[in-house]
Design brief:
By secondary structure, the chain is an alpha/beta fold. Helices cover 57% and strands 6% of the residues. It is built from 31 helices and 9 strands.
């Protein structure tokens, strides 16, 4: 008699045979088991007796190769005796019959150019059937991979078998949050309908709807599949229906209710993920589904990660199941490879209750909104005015304070700070200026990501509070080392404001509105330059007492900043979702205003995939390079402005007053650049080039003109401030030429890291040893802005070409996915602004 182990091997072989498992992976019993006539009779009757098995018998080519393999195992045994170990006649007759037939190409190896797949019945054995006998589900499929139609649905894939094993284990007594017993079930992208058949035939589901976008698959399911499994179409509680994601489930608009939905291997194509997530959202919102269970073979982790991100953006609550299929050699049915990991996730959507409008409420409401809401022009203007009044004054004053505190060094230097702290030799003053930007570089990314994670309001108010303390501590510095540490920490803390403001503008304003709003808050650096000399001119005349004038300057600045930081916590709105002073309806309309940006709304999840995409994009590095080049004069002017005027022969107070026009000039440059950026479509990089040319002219005037032409050299110095005309366009590009909240945060931080590096490079080219003309510094400015002018045009050409390619390939952009957290690369409706 065959051993128990041998009997189990034969049972596994029979089950694998009807599942058309690859011959190389079949469980072949030992020769001693196969030589037994009882075993051979069982193999014949259960595997090769066509009279008993038709029409479920596997393809002839598959049967012949397996039979040859079994006979070879017997005959290759060293102990095989042809007379005593005779192979039974029915098996030999079966092989003779198969060899005499003209075998057609096996459906398991269909060619890629076959228009129609060669279909055959495949029977899957339910695992752990035990003494109840073999339970089988029969599908009508082919083991070919991809056909001329592009469909992969005529095959049951590993993830479906894995999910079937999971559901079967639950049914047989396993513990799980998922059970279909007595429930109404819908399967998405069902293909062969394997899971639907399992749920209805053996797992006691009340009602099962199999759906797929391929009409041929649905017809096959409703015809031979249902018939072979003992169902009658129209009479039993199982049916197939074509469903194209993005359209209603029912053509007549009825909203049939279900309890649970399934899907397996639905995420192989990244382009279909938005439609899949929309379909899941429809099931949750319109069809009563409480759970969606998905299994995916992780051939590309980034692709499945994109699906999980999109689900998270829709506020689906996701739980990864710990279930793992047994290793192939331990499987008793639904045989599949476990070499590539298969993940199972269980998802549900948390209902939003009216009256409980927290930060996520509006996001959730819009996530369930399949169609955009129209916002009329009058409403749009009213909302824009309200947003401007809530945001712009707060952002402007905050940025003015930040710039005032940072640039105070230039004016404090001429009122005793250089002498008191021994900064008069070599590059010491330059290093005190630029070490601020080293701190800025260090803090920029962490604080930018913190603004994404914890909201703009919290990060700005807390960093403002701490930098005010640093400013208040500055008068206590008594040495070169002390002021270096003080300035470095100031740079770390101030670095969070500008990237956070870029994020804020990106989620509140349309693309067409962003450049002007960015220029408005950034122009306050110029306002600070106007006010600062007037205030410090008065403070500089303080005499007597224990403190020097420069120390009073820092104490006053720090006190004002400290008070403002406390107010900022209450008055700065972070995003439309959580802003005070807006109704729920207005919050929804505020998000609808920016849907057309195709850049997503606020999202607090930092996504490594989006971060990687940002750092590998040419848009990031071009914007970064332009930021470095356009801000090179910034640090030099803020540090050496008054000193350069002193070098022209002006007194300390005259030098201070000559700085007054610079602030006004900066305001004009920034606001005019913002205005032109809005009024002239796709002219942003032309404006960068134009501003660069003006800076080149100004630098040449102060560099090359003789000392006797002081007026012309002063004009040249003022023209250098046109760098802000170019730089403000870089800020706008950092918000409007990128999508996805993590990617926007990365771009915003990168833009201001470039700003910091430019401000580091600038002062280093101005050395006290080159006074009073500082020729090396102005020569550097000419070179930098020459490169900038050319790079802007190259960058513009590259983005224009990419827009043209998208127009040709995808047509006119839509706003369907405008509020989803997709990057500009993932959302094919995104267009770059040049």
């Amino acid at each position: 008699m065959a051993s128990i182990a041998g009997t189990e091997d034969v049972s596994r072989l029979i089950a694998q045979y009807f599942e058309l498992v690859d011959l190389r992976n079949l469980t072949i019993p030992s020769s001693s088991v196969l030589k037994n006539p009882v075993t051979q009779n069982r193999i014949y009757n259960e595997m090769f007796n066509g009279d008993l098995l038709t029409p479920v018998i596997p393809p002839a080519a598959y049967r012949l190769r397996l039979l040859k393999k079994l006979i070879a195992v017997i005959e290759n045994d060293d102990l095989w005796d042809p007379e005593e170990d005779e192979i039974i006649e029915p098996l030999m007759a079966a092989m003779t019959d198969l060899m005499s037939q003209p075998l057609q190409e096996d459906s398991s190896i269909s060619s890629l150019d076959t228009e129609e797949p060669q279909l055959s019945f495949v029977s899957y054995t339910v695992p752990q059937a035990g003494s109840q006998g073999r339970k089988q589900i029969t599908t009508y499929e082919s083991r070919g991979l991809i056909y001329g139609s592009g469909s992969t649905g005529f095959r049951t894939w590993e993830a479906a078998l894995h999910l079937g094993t999971y559901l079967s284990s639950v049914s047989s007594g396993g513990s799980s949050p998922v059970s279909v017993r007595g429930k109404r079930v819908v399967e998405l992208g069902a293909g062969t309908g394997f899971l639907s058949l399992l749920c209805q035939k053996f797992l006691d589901a009340e009602r099962v709807l199999m759906t797929d976008g391929n009409a041929k698959l649905v017809d096959v399911f409703n015809g031979p599949c249902l018939e072979r499994n003992g169902f009658v179409k129209g009479k039993d509680a199982i049916a197939g229906r074509q469903w194209l994601w993005g359209e209603p489930l029912s053509a007549d608009g009825t909203e049939e209710k279900f309890d649970i939905a399934f899907g397996a291997d639905l995420t192989y194509d990244k382009a279909t993920i938005p439609l899949l997530v929309d379909a899941i959202s429809r099931l949750f919102s319109s069809h009563g589904v409480k759970q969606f269970v998905i299994a995916a073979t992780i051939r590309n982790e980034d692709t499945f990660g994109a699906f999980l991100d999109a689900c998270q953006d829709r506020h689906f609550v996701m739980e990864k199941s710990s279930f793992e299929s047994p290793a192939f050699e331990n499987q008793t049915g639904f045989f599949h490879s476990t070499q590539v990991p298969i993940w199972t996730y269980i998802e549900h959507f948390e209902t939003v209750h009216a009256g409980n409008c927290d930060q996520d409420t509006v996001d959730k409401q819009l996530a369930m909104q399949n169609q955009p809401i129209a916002v009329d022009e009058e409403t749009n203007k009213r909302l824009l005015r309200k947003v401007d009044w809530r945001l712009m004054p707060v952002m402007c004053f905050t940025y003015a304070l930040q710039y005032y505190d940072k640039a105070l060094l230039s004016q404090a230097a001429i009122f005793g700070l250089r002498k008191d702290l021994n900064l008069e030799n070599g590059l010491r003053l330059s290093w005190v200026s630029i070490i601020f930007y080293f701190g800025y570089v260090l803090g920029c990314y962490p604080l930018s990501w913190a603004a994404q994670k914890f909201t703009v309001r919290k990060v700005c108010s807390i960093t403002c509070l701490f930098w005010s303390i640093i400013i208040l501590c500055t008068p206590a510095c008594t040495s070169y080392a002390g002021i270096l540490v003080n300035r470095f920490m100031l740079g770390v803390l101030e670095s969070g404001v500008s990237p956070a403001f870029m994020l804020c503008v990106g989620v509140w304003y349309k693309h067409s509105e962003q450049v002007l709003r960015s220029s408005i808050w950034y122009s306050c650096s110029g306002g600070s330059l106007i006010i600062s000399p007037i205030i410090n001119y008065g403070l500089g005349h303080i005499t007597g007492g224990k403190l020097h004038p420069w120390q009073y300057m820092y104490l006053i600045a720090g006190s004002v900043t400290f008070i403002w930081a406390i107010l900022l916590w209450w008055i700065l709105p972070s995003s439309p979702q959580d802003a005070r002073g807006f109704t729920n309806e207005e919050r929804i309309l505020l998000l609808e205003r920016v849907r057309g940006n195709n850049a997503g709304s606020e999202n607090h999840n930092i996504k490594g995939r989006h971060l990687k995409e940002a750092l590998l994009s040419y848009q990031f590095w071009c914007t970064f390079a332009l930021s470095v080049l356009t801000t090179t004069p910034g640090g030099a002017i803020s540090t050496y402005g008054s000193i350069i005027f002193e070098g022209m022969g002006f007194s300390t107070f005259e030098s201070l007053l000559l700085n007054l026009p610079i602030g006004g000039f900066a305001i004009v440059c920034i606001l005019s650049s913002g205005y032109l950026g809005r009024r002239l479509p796709n002219a942003r990089l032309h404006l960068v080039t134009a501003g660069s040319l003006v800076v080149i002219i100004g630098s040449c005037m102060i560099w090359k003109l003789p000392a006797s032409q002081r007026a012309a050299r002063i004009i040249g110095y003022y023209l250098i401030n046109f760098f802000s005309f170019a730089w403000v366009q870089c800020i706008a590009m950092g918000t409007s030429n990128v999508a996805g909240h993590t990617k926007k945060a990365t771009m915003a931080a990168g833009t201001f890291v470039g700003f910091a590096l430019g401000n580091i490079i600038g002062p280093l080219t101005f050395s006290a040893n080159d006074a009073p003309r500082y020729n090396a510094g102005f020569e550097t400015l000419v070179i930098s802005f020459s490169i900038c002018a050319v790079l802007a045009q190259v960058f513009r050409f590259a983005m224009q070409r990419q827009n043209s390619r998208r127009d040709q390939k995808y047509g006119e952009p839509s706003v369907e996915h405008g509020l989803e957290d997709l990057t500009d690369k993932e959302n094919k409706s995104f267009r770059y602004h040049v």
